[in-house]
Specification:
- The protein has about 210 residues and is α/β, with parallel strands linked by helices.
- Helix content is about 40%, strand content about 10%.
- It contains eight helices and five strands, in the order H-E-H-E-H-E-H-E-H-H-E-H-H.
- Strands 1, 2, 3, 4 and 5 form a five-stranded parallel β-sheet that branches.
- Strand 3, helix 4 and strand 4 form a beta-alpha-beta unit.
- The chain is globular.
Length: about 210
């Protein structure tokens, strides 16, 4: 991830020189190490200088066809404690982002399988209930990301619906009602068309 991000920063500088940046840009991240954190800060400064506004994925989606707005949507998947390291910077620079979170984190369920799915090894890597409440009370958007972070296609329709409903039920306890959803593992090939139709019953943005 860090090498890809560094390459992206270099490409941004090339695009700036050529003046070829698109009006709408969407980027997503997972865990954040120190190098990635500094690269994200650099990207934000670059885009801000170029007149971009940082918005939630829902607002971004609402203005996709509006050529008068230069927008960036940053999103963060799964539920990592390192996200907190950017919150003060976001507030200082008026950056709104979206956090797509798995709700298994906030239960007493065994999590070793979940940690493997998200490429982590320690429970300490995950956000706490206090962290979630902090995000819920902020101006950022919280989106759904399933309960268990399974490959959606591997689930039956009933299993998939139960997973989504559990995700939403747990968020409801924190006063959170997600209107957006991010597919685990990030690609449409991991979900089938019938599952997408189900998601449209629950969410405005997928």
């Amino acid at each position: 991830m860090k090498k890809k991000l560094q390459r992206f920063v270099r490409l941004i500088n090339i695009f700036l020189f050529k003046k070829e940046l698109p009006e709408k840009i969407s980027l997503y991240f997972h865990n954040i190490d120190d190098v990635t954190l500094e690269s994200i800060k650099q990207l934000i400064r670059i885009f801000k200088y170029q007149g971009y506004k940082f918005v939630s994925i829902s607002e971004f989606n609402n203005h996709l066809n509006d050529d008068s707005k230069k927008l960036v949507a940053l999103s963060f998947d799964d539920g990592f404690a390192t996200w907190k390291n950017l919150l003060d910077f976001f507030e200082e620079h008026e950056v709104i982002v979206t956090f797509f979170i798995n709700s298994i984190i906030f239960t007493n369920e065994e999590k070793s399988s979940y940690l493997r799915k998200i490429g982590s090894y320690k429970l300490e890597d995950l956000i706490s209930t206090d962290d979630l409440q902090l995000l819920a009370n902020s101006s950022h958007e919280i989106g759904a990301h399933t309960h268990n972070h399974d490959i959606c296609k591997s689930l039956s329709i009933d299993e998939f619906k139960k997973d989504i409903e559990l995700n939403l039920e747990i968020f409801k306890k924190f006063g959170i009602k997600p209107s957006s959803f991010a597919i685990p593992f990030g690609m449409r090939r991991y979900i089938d068309k019938n599952q997408v139709l189900i998601l449209k019953e629950y969410f405005k943005v997928i």
